[in-house]
Amino acid sequence: MSESPPPAAPFPPAFDDAFRARLADLFAWRRDVRRFRTDPVDEAVLRTCLDWAALAPSVGNSQPWRFVRVSEPRRRASVAASFERCNAAARATYADERQALYARLKLAGLREAPVHLAVFCDSGTEAGHGLGRATMPEMLRYSVAACIHAFWLAARAHGLGVGWVSILEPAIVTQALDVPEGWDLIAYLCVGHPVEEHADPELVRHGWQERHPETARLLER
User: What are the tens digits of pLDDT across the range 141-190?
Assistant: First the structure.
């Protein structure tokens, strides 16, 4: 059974080369998973991943992320229907070989994943007292994205896969989940044990696009 991290020590820990190598492995093996086993996720592990995710940075310490677990079949069905509509529309924007390739891609694990998490930004939160977002209010959303990435890494470290489904209608999903006003959908995550493990991203493996390492280069100004 997994446990939450212990209280912070009075002095920061020393991260050695061995730890950094394992951390690099964690980043490299973090994959967008679409192919899930249907067996359930341990509740303690899921709780731990959420606790670790909440350690993410947020503008003004606002912590605007709101996680909603989607379990009701009718709500899941509404999300799946939205995906089917959006996916068909997106497929139609391509032509010829690219359209055929798109049609072969598996772009969501909505039917198989045992856990569905919708992640919202509470745009009306008073936490943080507005610090750091007067000129960049979008920082609230960026803070939620940072939390999602932290959850993704935590899940990977616990042997779970996460798939971010973006081919959806945010308004439809928000309505289907009946969340408070002022919550904006940032991500819909499928979570579970992956059917297969691959070091390369699925879209690379299936010929959609290669990775471009040069995008991480540092520009000097």
Answer: 999 999 999 999 999 999 999 999 999 999 999 999 999 999 999 999 99
**pLDDT at 7 (0 to 100):** 64
- Kindly tell me if the per-residue pLDDT of 207 is higher than 90: no
- DSSP-assigned states of every residue in 88-134: HHHHHTS-HHHHHHHHH-----TTT-SEEEEEEEETT--TTTTTT-S
Q: Rounded distance, CA 41 to CA 5, Å?
A: 19
Question: CA 110 → CA 125, 126, 149, distances in Å?
Answer: 30, 33, 20
pTM of the model: 0.90
Question: Six-digit token pair at 214?
Answer: 């040069």
The answer to whether 54 and 147 have CB atoms below 8 angstroms apart is yes
Q: Which residues contact 168 (CB under 8 A, 6 or more apart)?
A: 79, 82, 83, 86, 185, 188
- Which residue bears the tokens 């690379």? 204
The widest CA-to-CA distance across the chain, in whole angstroms, is 61
Q: Are 53 and 160 in contact (CB under 8 A)?
A: no
Q: CA-to-CA distance for 150 and 171, rounded, in angstroms? A: 25
Query: How far out from the chain centre does Cα 108 lie?
Result: 12
**CA dist list (Å): 36 to 30, 115, 168, 193:** 15, 10, 19, 6
Structural domains for the chain: 31-208 (3.40.109.10)
